[in-house]
Design a protein that fits this description.
Layout: H1 2-7, H2 10-13, E1 40-44, H3 50-68, E2 72-76, H4 80-88, E3 94-96, H5 99-108, E4 113-119, E5 127-135, E6 150-153, H6 159-171, H7 176-179, E7 182-185, H8 189-197, E8 203-208, H9 222-228, E9 237-242, E10 246-247, E11 250-254, H10 259-275, H11 277-284, E12 291-293, H12 300-316
Parallel strand pairs: 1-2, 1-3, 6-7, 6-8
Antiparallel strand pairs: 3-11, 4-11, 4-12, 5-8, 5-9, 5-10
Helix pairs in contact: 3-11, 4-5, 5-12, 10-11
């Protein structure tokens, strides 16, 4: 089964060896590639309110601008599809995407985007998990008790908030169309969890590193971010299901950009965690070990899952 092949491909997701030496930030100054890339436009995925997204990324935006001497503009989208469509229209140069959103953009652009690196978790691995949460006072303590209850997905283009939980639940023999009383989209990871807290849904799926203190929302992820912002405490929620490891989503750039730009952009990020740890923690919603370079091959199983999900939708229509 494809999901199993994807999630037991441990070699690609296991902790990576520490780098032999700390990467250096690129020297500040305008580059020759600026003639072709006069500004760096970065899409920001939905899933968090716009003001918080822009606030988290401001120091990062300013550092990029200072380093490369070109304007850097941030474009927060209402949902994942907005960023994916911006790649197709060549309205952005890059964006940090989830694995499913990357696969969708790759399919939509006929290979017109490429992944360049992913975040490393606290143990050096490059994987995270999907979790299903319910209110702690709901009386629901297991996936079995979600039968006949309502479930919020995060976004149709989210890996942990839609694609992987649907695939794993189907793999466990659950007919999603009949098992739950209803399903719907929360409008993003943060919004889906809020919908559970406000009793609009019984459960929701979202993302977490799966590492560290669960009572604090793990080392990073949507739950940790909401705890850090004072939107909830983990005492408010109960986690009743966890997925197998999922490949971390990649920083994605247009394939047609100059190789020198991609090299400089990659070097900047490989050095970011060591040289500017606070900026790294802000944009990654918690701690980790920096970034690791990747290629499209790591995400090919996710591309196949996207194709399967599209085929399933066609069968239902």
């Amino acid at each position: 089964m494809l999901t199993r092949r994807l999630l037991i491909a441990g070699a690609a997701l296991a902790p990576l060896a520490a780098q032999a030496q700390t990467p250096q930030m690129p020297a500040a100054g305008r580059r020759a590639w600026a003639q072709q890339v006069p500004q760096i436009r970065l899409g920001l995925l939905g899933g968090e309110n716009e003001a918080d997204r822009l606030g988290r990324y401001e120091a990062y935006r300013a550092l990029l601008e200072q380093t490369f001497g070109v304007p850097v503009r941030l474009f927060p989208a209402a949902d994942y599809a907005g960023v994916m469509q911006a790649f197709g229209a060549k309205q952005i140069e890059g964006a940090a995407l989830g694995a499913s959103a990357y696969a969708g953009a790759w399919l939509d652009t006929n290979g017109g985007v490429e992944p360049i690196f992913v975040a490393r978790e606290a143990d050096g691995s490059i994987a995270y998990i999907s979790v299903m949460v319910v209110r702690a006072d709901s009386g629901i303590t297991s996936l079995e008790q979600m039968r006949g209850k309502s479930l919020a997905w995060a976004d149709a283009n989210s890996t942990s908030g839609y694609l992987i939980p649907r695939s794993e639940l189907r793999g466990a023999g659950i007919d999603i169309n009949t098992y739950f009383s209803r399903t719907g989209f929360g409008g993003g990871h943060e919004q889906a969890v809020v919908a559970v807290l406000q009793r609009q849904y019984d459960g929701a799926v979202t993302w977490a590193s799966g590492q560290g203190d669960e009572s604090q929302g793990f080392t990073r992820g949507n739950l940790r971010a909401m705890v850090d912002k004072g939107m909830l405490t983990m005492r408010d929620l109960r986690i009743i299901w966890k997925s197998r490891p999922i490949p971390n989503g990649p920083m994605t750039v247009r394939a047609d950009l100059p190789p020198a730009f991609k090299a400089d952009f990659t070097q900047f990020h490989l050095a970011l965690a060591a040289v500017h740890p606070q900026i790294y923690a802000q944009i990654e919603r918690g701690g980790g070990q920096g970034y690791a370079q990747v290629t499209h091959a790591m995400f090919e199983p996710i591309v196949q899952l996207r194709r399967e999900e599209a085929a399933e939708r066609r069968r239902r229509s």
